[in-house]
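<context>
A single protein, sequence plus fold
<sample>
Here is the protein in question:
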Amino acid sequence: MIFLVLILLLFSLLIKTSYFFLSDYWSDIAFKVVHLSFAGFIIELAITFFIFLLLYSITRRKYTSVAITLILYFLFITSQIVKVNLLGTPIFPADLNLIGDLLRTKEVYIIFLPTLIGFIFFISITIFLGFRKEKSSLLILAPILLIISFTLFSAAYFFNEDTRLLLRNHGIFYKKNANLTKKALQNGLLTGFVQAALFTGELKPPENYSKELIEEIIQKYKLNKSSSANPRYDNVIVMLVESYSDPEEFGWRYSEPILPNYKKITNSQISGLAMSPVYGGKSINAEFELMTGMSNRFTPIETTPYQEFIDRDIPSLARTFQESGYTTNAIQMVPFRGFGFEKIYDYLGVENQISLSPQSPTIEKDPSGRSVSSKVIGNEVISILKSQTKSFVFLFPNSSHSPWKMSHYPNSQLKLLNINIDSNYADTIIAYTEALNHIDEMLGSIMNHVKKTNEKTLIVIAGDHLPGFDFYLNNKNINSQNNYINYILNKYRTSLAIWSSDEPLPYEKINISLNLIPAVIFKYSDIETKGFMKFNSILYNSFDVISHVFKEKNKAFSKVLKDNHKLLINDYLLLQYDLLFGNQYISTNE
């Protein structure tokens, strides 16, 4: 018994030490020092102790089991650090589906290699010495404790929904796909991992889902008939930009103009508010909505549909342009094989998949030294336009990713004119704005190129989510905590602009959710649509926003769906379920 108490103290010291280090190390990403909560600590300790008991019951060697548990925990924490440094989010079970692709990626494999070698060496030595010399006197107590732990765990898992809601109500489990690093520091990395693996909640088939019902929906909206049109543009470029927004829209004022190219669009053509499904992180869920026209409202919380559910061909923005005679391209700033994009884009109909990895020594970096220079990205887009007759290009520039530090911009003359703001916060805002200016240079280079050609080009630029520091929003004169609609608009809005090099688009300010942007692109591009993507355009005839809140045409934002549109949204749910989880009856009817 004394030995078990000592083990608990050892594990407690390990956990406390690890999170003391991580709280400081990740303070730039979480935007403040976040400490592990007491509840998070207890759950983390319980999981670690359960792993020890399991190992001990298998090996029957207490010191070996302790050593292996410590090594496994060290490997887990080290892997979390690597993942957060690379992508800004902790490791979740969905990432394990990609581990084969991840380790086949040279740049990422090299990063993990020292950890893998150290893990294999130390665990081999530990097992060898433990099995060779150690004998244990806890052969009866440990299995009993393991059985008790397993029984409690099984009960919690059996009552999955009740357990999930109980822990969420007490602030232990995540409620939204946002600020995941901050939440991991507060609730525990193991807590989040176990939650995502076991307590996320399953998506049940919609009521009355059947082939006959899907066929009825297809006939109702005439989805198997294409809308006839002739494509207006030679090129369509869609930019989903990391943490992109216009700071001046949030009340920040500067000593000199910012985002000059973006401002040219907002002052003359289409611009406005784009509603994102996420805040501060999980960009891949924003891309999921933009590229597929589907909604995260209808997927399990804490999931990444791109990685977890797309395992076959589905309709998409790219596929629709491909079927209209365009060569489809996607540019990412990560190794494709390492993050699942290779498979995802195959299923979306992307022909050319281009990786500009910052790990490559030959690629120019942005001022932070962590991401690919926007100049390089702009040149890549221009190169594609020159080499193809008709191009659809999707790109995800991420040099505006956190952390934002003034040391990245030593020559910056930009000043923040807002008063009553902490100097550290002011520096973060200025560095973030300089990162946006870096993106704006890329936008300007592409706009200038297409102006010099006779090719008609449509450019769409939108943010994936807002930057995840709350003081960025505090300058808005909105009492968001007392008004749910304002809270959502404050937290989940990003900036949007749409520009045509041909005849200018009408000057218009719009509100739209990311999942309905495909309908706007099809509308102004005169692109034929059918099936689910045609239904996306039908949705846009009635709605501007289908996200955390709704906005019907010419109506105010609302939390509640009006009765006259409940059937339309239910059809949306059924079609999305059919494509992602069901039998794809809609595809067989196209």
User: Anything to note?
Assistant: The chain has a mean pLDDT of 81. The chain has two domains: 2-198, 229-243+265-399+451-567. The longest strand covers residues 493-500.
